[in-house]
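Page 47, continued from p. 46.
Same chain as before, 489 aa.
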Amino acid sequence: MSDKVASWNNWLNDRRGGMLTWFALITPALVSVAALAIDIGRIYALENDLQLAADSYARAAAFELDRQPDAIARASQAANDLLHNDQRFGQGGSSDVTVANLRFLKDIPSSDTADITSDFDTSVSADARYVEITVSPKTISTLLPTDMVSGVLSIELEAKAVAGASRGVCNMAPMFVCNPVEDTGGNLFALGKTRSFQRRQVLLLEKGNGKDSTYFPGNFGYLEVGGSGASDLKDAMSLAKPNNCVSQDGVELRTGAVASVVDGFNTRFDIYEGSYKKESNNPAYAPAENVTRGVSGKACKESADPNAMGLPRDACHLTGTCTDADGRLGDGDWDFPTYLEVNHGAPVSVTINGTNFTINYATRKVSPELPSRYEVYRWEIETNRIPGSVGYGASTTPENGEPACYSGGTAAGVDRRVVRVAVLDCLALDEQYGINGSSAPPLPAKAFWQFFITEPIGSTSDMQIWGEMIGPVTNETDELAVETARVVR
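Result:
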């Protein structure tokens, strides 16, 4: 009996093999935790792949939302074709992540947690400010069931992103102009690519009297700049590189004619008068390389000369018969033959910007069409044909079109006579806000446009600024353009 008791006690006191019991109990739990960790890691990795793809597609599409008529078409193409992203953890191995759905939005809710309802949808390129991208869902296999009832060993994941683009211009003269074809329903961007429209001269700004001098009551065409005083506006209108940036999402109108901008603005043409007399050696106010304007005489004291000629105005502006855009938009018919006679010795043909123009001086006709003034201006600089310049024998004008008053080193360059101007759909904005004086909030710009300044401001009494349309400001055409696209959701 004692032997049996001793054996029983020995068995109770024997600890060998105890870990096997615990191991048998905890192994399933350890395996489950390891499988869960693997599943979570792979799910996170796939989610990350899908989200990165959605973000990149949304940014690519948002970059194209420039409010031009084909913006939505270009954005759709960019999202589908411009980039390729792949994922590595879905069923079937590595594969492309594709776009399942695009939504274009005119705005988004102010709260990030609010749903983007169909009220925000738009199919109009001019209104599309945001794009929502949803990528095709991917299924990932799991080690543990995702549903304990059905025992499904997989889960489907998807991702979406909302992105918008911000556009603006830095170092610009703070001016705006109403869209000259808004009342006709014309496509500004399509027309802006044609020479026949580019050479139509525009009266950008005039002091004058009466409603025809203002775009809205009290608004002559200026925008607010960083400072609030007239001197801040004057400097921004005159400096070769004004220190400002303006966003397409909202420009602020500045009221008043501010006649003091005249002297500063005219430094582009090598004219240093008034408070700018002392700036004739300051590179910040350097003139353009070509300042031909129909004058002659001693440097800094030139005066109008009937035997000299600057770039003339459109015929209907000279006769006061222009009707488009309340008379501000010309007909593009300018006296190119006479300009060639005075400044270039009446050549019968010239090649400008890749086009050969033939001139019949008897009939005053030019074939195949008239060039733009900007094309002529660039041609004169690029081929060393600035009127009256030293060494240009074909020109007999009494004027020397090169800067003579400026003494601060090299001229500011070819684009000193190019200004960037905000273009507004004034009719639509006035209908929405009833703009009077400074009553309007920051207004969205349809675009920023390059204008070539064709002549200096003549006097402070009428203070007219004349320009010729070159084209929209984009990253491709202008180093001063600022374009960014970011994911907002």
